[in-house]
Amino acid sequence: MNVRRTIRSAAAIGAAGALALGVLTACSSDDSNDAGPTTDLPTSPAAGEPIKIGFIGAEGGVVALPQLRAAAEATAKYLNDNAGGINGHKVDLVVCNQQEDPASATKCANEMVEKKVAVVAVPMTSQGAVMLPIIARSGIPYVAQAPVSAVEMGAPGGFMISGGSVAVLKAQAQTAAKEGVKKFTMLIGDSGDAAASIGQMAQLFFKPAGIEVKTVIIPSNVADPTPQITAGLADKPDAVTILGDTRQCIAGLKALKSAAPTVKKYLIATCLDKKVTEAVGEDAVEGAKAFTTVVTTGDDPSVVQYRSVLAKYAPDVDPHGVGYLGYQVISSIAEVGHSLPAGPVTAAQFKAAFAAAKDLPVPAAPGLTFTCNGKAFPKAPNLCGTSMLVSTVGPDGVLEDSTVVN
């Protein structure tokens, strides 16, 4: 498989993930207090010269994710008031919201250049191919938590904290091999050429492990796709994953209940959403393997800090929801910024700091690190890591026994 096709295939599954985010925001848990303990934050205000950090969110359009901005703003307040800033520098967060269309994305990218920010943070977007070139041409590093477009994965000037679709498929293939899976089926929505592209991408990871992998399309134009899904499971796979939005997760899990009740289930965060479990029952996901890049429960110090920052500065943001993307991207920039000088900080210095970043912790993801030297996945050199947290879904949807898959 050539590099261009590999990156294009990865982008297709990333786009499906972006679509899923739009659904997730409408159904976050109302019971945020079960996440775990919080703690008092230290008092260490920043006193150094401000650093302008651009933040491009998605609000005002079909996809509205105010949680991303709110969590990013909360993180900036925490850095400024409690964590001594970024190596002493105060964070001046410059926010622009686009509507997930080329026109508004172009406007936001140009605004970042005009306001001379030192770095641009983008949690996740379908418009990276529009924004990254504009920002990178001005020498400003473009930092995203997870890549969606091929441009984000490979164009100069981009740094992706997690491996996105590449990491998901890689971790699922490794887990399947470890569990003795011989036949693996992917249920995926029928948007664009996603099914064909992801099928190609999956071969890169599953075939060397001796695992037969196929895709089954979940049609969006029928009320109940159970017959199509059931037909696709006729060869009795050993394990199944569902790649799509919450609606597709519901359809897939309902079909699995009747057609393959004992099959191993490999689920991404979309399929663990409260809306899904309310529709299919928690028993439909209990015992499944979960593939994520964040932990929201438990007592790990980085996770407790995440919950504490949101509790203090963004109490309306559900720690179980997508706000973690805004938190992680700003916190990761702060991690990299610890190597910056005390004086004025330029975009060139920030870009060099990212290129030199090695084994830095991914915030609120115990065990995950990022290194931005282009070697994590050479076919997509902007990926700073391809590791995932693989957990078992326990009672009440709690993720248990999390391990890092590299």
From TrEMBL:
<dbReference type="InterPro" id="IPR051010">
    <property type="entry name" value="BCAA_transport"/>
</dbReference>
<dbReference type="InterPro" id="IPR028081">
    <property type="entry name" value="Leu-bd"/>
</dbReference>
<comment type="similarity">
    <text>Belongs to the leucine-binding protein family.</text>
</comment>
<dbReference type="InterPro" id="IPR028082">
    <property type="entry name" value="Peripla_BP_I"/>
</dbReference>
<dbReference type="Pfam" id="PF13458">
    <property type="entry name" value="Peripla_BP_6"/>
</dbReference>
<feature type="domain" description="Leucine-binding protein">
    <location>
        <begin position="50"/>
        <end position="375"/>
    </location>
</feature>
<feature type="signal peptide">
    <location>
        <begin position="1"/>
        <end position="20"/>
    </location>
</feature>
<keyword id="KW-0732">Signal</keyword>
<protein>
    <submittedName>
        <fullName>ABC transporter substrate-binding protein</fullName>
    </submittedName>
</protein>
